[in-house]
Model the fold of this input.
Amino acid sequence: MTDQRHVPVPPSLADGRWRALDPRYVPCARIGGAGPALFQSVMIFGAMLGAILIFELPRWTKIALGPAWLLATLVLLLWTMVWPGLSYRAIRYRLDEQSFEISRGVFWRELITVPRSRIQHTDVSQGPLQRHFGIATLIVYTAGTVNASVHLSGLAHPTALTMRDHLVRVGDGDAV
Done:
């Protein structure tokens, strides 16, 4: 298990500089994505086997389904290994005294700005795999009903806690 006490927390996260996620996000996302990729591979295999058993397919089609399944499985596993790195490079966040911003998107860019005056409350969550890697997800709940929460996964756990404490700081007069 990763020792979280040795993860450096920037002295002031609220300096308005763009920051990257913790690099441990990439292996965590790769391992987390492997299970669904293998499940999809089994589902594809089952669909192909069902097609062979149910339909009168030409012999060449039956023979081609094996390599097609193998190719689909390799593509899924390759995607599982490549996508987290692309995603990691595309996600940035910044925090200042007035707002919290997230920039993300490999193909379609998205910039999310959450003014501190709209923040209702925040949570920091960790699944078992995130705990193992010492990272966490910061969840910011905002005033409103549609898209009333913003999630940022891949933060070092101490950083997520520091950000949570900064965002819900009481006594500033700018919180709802």
Notes: The chain has two domains: 14-19+93-167, 28-86. Residues 28-86 form one domain. The longest strand covers residues 135-142. The chain has four helices and seven strands.
